[in-house]
Write a structure and sequence with these properties.
With about 375 residues, the chain is of the alpha/beta class. It has 16 helices and 13 strands.
Length: about 375
């Protein structure tokens, strides 16, 4: 049996955290013993306990940052002691460059990391790029790319192809559907009743494209007033986006929910799910919509294209940063219920075939045993 320590510096549960929780709920306990190291304030602590996985905390982790010199020596000491005490075979980090450096300094032989994001608006000079690539390549044996788009990004940054393994994210389809089925009506239910619902589920950050979602909403509302637009999530743009809705004159038609634990409850309400990202490594929220047979309108960027398929039969693809294209596709799906349902059925089939939690956890475990 292999003994694996996962390190994640995030304090909130974003894409990396959701990926890790899904793995913790589905790995084969006959083949692995797993621990998690995270910051003391991490929301993952409760999720680890629910999954029956021991979680450790360190104040030396960077906390929502991949790297910081501050605390690195302390993290190296703590990690070295824990690796020795628990006889850790593999350290697996999620974005935490500090974690990889500490593991390397502590003498860990097998280091894996998962790249959950694309390098977005991040330019480097040639010398700096080469220096980062060399240092990064020294800290791991294998990197997991969550999509072909991420793999291409890694290759472009100088990572040798032999060190990259493509493993798609997966979701717990049965659990998500059960959460949707059991969801209790919330205080917003009266607002939703008798209206078509178009939604977005994402952190309120620039790369997620909320601006174009709201601009598309304004276009749609010029044609029909029976639509409610739901924005699920929180982030740095919460105030700015609320102001955008006011400026567009659509505030009464837009519901900002803030952070929500039960994403399934909101996705279940939707007639159409929109993923207007400007960049996207994968797109877990798109899988969640598809598994509930929701027709999706997504930007043709990164991993979203791989989920939808080049032919767009499992989801509608549109150019990024194009509010008009979003509005046109959403209007079409709202007006053609039969075609929307057919797309939803194809989406369900695709998720069940390629993007399950069991498949993802099994492939990660197999990678560990290859090292």
């Amino acid at each position: 049996m292999l003994r694996v320590l996962h390190i994640i510096s995030d304090t909130n549960i974003g894409g990396a955290g959701r990926h890790l929780v899904t793995f913790l709920e589905h790995f084969d306990r006959a083949r692995l013993t797993v621990w998690v190291l995270c910051p003391p304030a991490s929301q993952l602590l409760e999720q680890c306990a629910a999954a029956g996985v021991e979680a450790l905390t360190s104040t030396c982790l960077a906390g929502d940052r991949s790297f910081s010199w501050r605390g690195l020596s302390g993290l190296t000491r703590e990690l070295g002691a824990f690796v020795k005490e628990r006889r850790i075979d593999i350290v697996h980090t999620h974005a935490s460059f500090s974690g990889r450096l500490a593991a390397k300094a502590a003498g860990v032989r097998h280091i894996v990391y998962t790249k959950h994001r694309m390098d977005w608006e991040f330019s480097r000079g040639l010398i700096k790029k080469q220096a980062i690539a060399i240092l990064n390549n020294m800290t791991f044996q294998r990197v997991i790319a969550v999509s072909q788009a991420v793999k291409d990004d890694l290759l472009h940054s100088g990572v040798p192809e032999a060190k990259i393994t493509l493993i798609y994210n997966g979701i717990d389809i049965k659990k998500f559907r059960e959460q949707a089925r059991l969801a209790c009506p919330g205080p917003w239910q009266e607002t939703v009743n008798k209206r078509r619902v178009v939604g977005i589920v994402a952190r309120l950050e620039p790369e997620k494209g909320h601006r174009y979602f709201l601009e598309a909403a304004a276009i749609i509302l010029k044609k029909r007033k029976d639509v409610l637009f739901i924005v699920v999530g929180t982030g740095s743009l919460s105030g700015e986006l609320a102001e955008t809705a006011r400026r567009l004159g659509i505030s009464e038609y837009v519901l900002f929910t803030g952070y929500q634990d039960n994403i399934a409850e909101f996705v279940a309400m939707m007639d159409v799910l929109v993923i207007p990202s400007l960049t996207e490594a994968f797109g877990i929220s798109m899988l969640e919509g598809m598994c509930l047979a929701k027709p999706c309108v997504a930007s043709a960027v990164g991993g979203l294209v791989e989920i939808a398929g080049e032919d767009g039969r499992a989801a509608c693809l549109i150019p990024p940063a194009d509010a008009g294209a979003i509005a046109a596709k959403v209007n079409f799906l709202l007006e053609h219920q039969d075609l929307a349902e057919a797309m939803g059925a194809r989406a369900v089939a695709k998720v069940e075939e390629k993007f399950t939690a069991e498949k993802m956890a099994g492939e990660i475990t197999s990678l560990y045993y290859e090292l």
